[in-house]
């Protein structure tokens, strides 16, 4: 039976560092089979052979998804090898809002049925994750969104709207409960991002055990590696610059609301008058991303009052989480979960 390790984030918990340095490095040296990797260190050259499969898993309705399952399972079978650990690393599995965690991981289990599956998940205290995630996603997701135009507004939505889809990103107890139900308690490995920062040796030794690779090899690949570190002014961080590509995406998304856009797009695609996608991708890589329209915004951190509200919102679940993942309550307090 083929073995598959699925690393699902969370976002802003060194996911890119693991992808680019540990998983890519071990794949290049023949230790693992990485199903999605940077084939170079150029971010435009990201190799993701399961992109269409994951997109369907995230957004398709039940009928459409089940109609493609046989094709997808065949595609996955062609990518998997039996004599190595197969590793998939995709933090979008915890980020997509079209379906619940229950639906997403039930579908993932279906796609990899017949394989021995284990899950790796990194948590980060909700106060720090909320701020870091907003700064990271401002450029691509929240820029131009009036409801999330500042971190304060975003924070208020998470605090006050119990139906907010994005709140589930921070509901760790519910997420891990879904993972245990689908894959079993002994197949779900949960790490604290704070331990990655403060006790790297402990985390890497556990990865050595899970990956069946020597600690020394893993240490060499991961030592002093950091990705996606934002610029800082005082205690506040800057989001990335807004380039022309982001402006175009913003206005295209606005036009998608109107039937005339859909009609025109279908008309052009149907007649193949222009290869808009290939032209746009070429311009995006060669020109648009270098044209800065707006410098990165400064995002103020939470006040102590806001921090306390966040801690209180998730305190009950985080206490129950301690028993679920066998972590000492004092350690959770030390790292800001309680």
Describe the structure.
With 338 residues, the chain is an alpha/beta fold. The protein folds into two domains: 3-229 and 305-334, 3-Layer(aba) Sandwich (Rossmann fold); 242-294, no CATH class. Helices cover 54% and strands 12% of the residues. The strands form four sheets. Strands 2-5-1-6-7 form a five-stranded parallel sheet, with helices on both faces. A three-stranded antiparallel sheet has the order 8-9-12, with no helix packed on it. A two-stranded antiparallel sheet has the order 3-4. Helix 4 packs parallel to helix 7 (172-183) and helix 9 (200-211) crosses helix 10 (215-222). 29% of the residues are buried. The model has no long low-confidence stretch (mean pLDDT 84).
Give the CATH topology of the largest domain: Rossmann fold
CATH class of the largest domain: Alpha Beta
Mean pLDDT: 84
Helix content: 40-55%
Sequence of strands across the biggest β-sheet: 2-5-1-6-7
Q: How much beta, percentage-wise? A: 5-15%
Query: Count of helices?
Result: 15
CATH architecture type of the largest domain: 3-Layer(aba) Sandwich
Question: How do the helices and strands follow one another from N- to C-terminus?
Answer: EHEEEHHEHEHHHEHHHEEEHHHEEHH
Which value, in Å, is the CA radius of gyration?
Answer: 21 Å
Q: How many E strands? A: 12
Compute the number of structural domains.
2
Distance between the termini: 41 Å
Shape summary = globular
**The CATH fourth-level homologous superfamily of the largest domain:** P-loop containing nucleotide triphosphate hydrolases
Q: Structural class, judged by helices and strands?
A: alpha/beta
Q: Report the biggest beta sheet as strand number plus sense, adding barrel if it closes.
A: 5 strands, parallel
């Amino acid at each position: 039976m083929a073995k598959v390790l699925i690393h699902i984030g969370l976002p802003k918990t060194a996911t890119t560092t693991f992808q680019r340095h540990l998983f890519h490095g071990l794949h290049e040296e023949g230790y693992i089979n990485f199903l999605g990797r940077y084939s170079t260190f150029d971010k435009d050259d990201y190799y993701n052979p399961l992109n269409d499969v994951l997109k369907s898993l995230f957004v398709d309705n039940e009928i459409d998804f089940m109609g493609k399952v046989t094709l997808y399972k065949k595609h996955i079978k062609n990518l998997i090898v039996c004599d190595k650990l197969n590793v998939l690393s995709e933090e979008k599995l915890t980020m997509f809002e079209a379906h619940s965690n229950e639906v997403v991981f039930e579908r993932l289990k279906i796609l990899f049925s017949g394989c021995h599956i284990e899950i790796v998940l990194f948590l980060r205290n909700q106060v720090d994750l909320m701020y870091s995630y907003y700064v990271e996603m401002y450029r691509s997701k929240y820029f131009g969104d009036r409801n999330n135009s500042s971190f304060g507004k975003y924070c208020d939505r998470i605090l006050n709207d119990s139906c907010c889809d994005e709140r589930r990103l921070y509901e760790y107890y519910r997420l891990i409960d879904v993972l245990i139900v689908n894959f079993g308690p002994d197949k779900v490995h949960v790490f604290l991002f704070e331990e990655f920062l403060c006790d790297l040796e402990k985390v890497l030794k556990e990865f050595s055990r899970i990956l069946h690779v020597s600690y020394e090899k893993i240490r060499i690949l991961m030592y002093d590696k950091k990705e996606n570190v934002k610029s800082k002014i005082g205690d506040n961080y800057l989001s990335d610059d807004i380039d022309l590509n982001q402006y175009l995406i913003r206005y295209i998304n606005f036009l998608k609301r109107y039937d005339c856009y859909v009609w025109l797009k279908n008309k052009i695609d149907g007649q193949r008058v222009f290869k808009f996608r290939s032209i746009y991708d070429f311009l995006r890589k060669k020109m648009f991303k270098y044209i800065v329209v707006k410098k990165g915004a400064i995002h103020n951190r939470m006040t102590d009052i806001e921090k306390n509200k966040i801690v209180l919102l998730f305190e009950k679940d985080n206490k129950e989480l301690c028993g679920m993942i066998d972590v000492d309550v004092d350690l959770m307090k030390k790292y800001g979960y309680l």
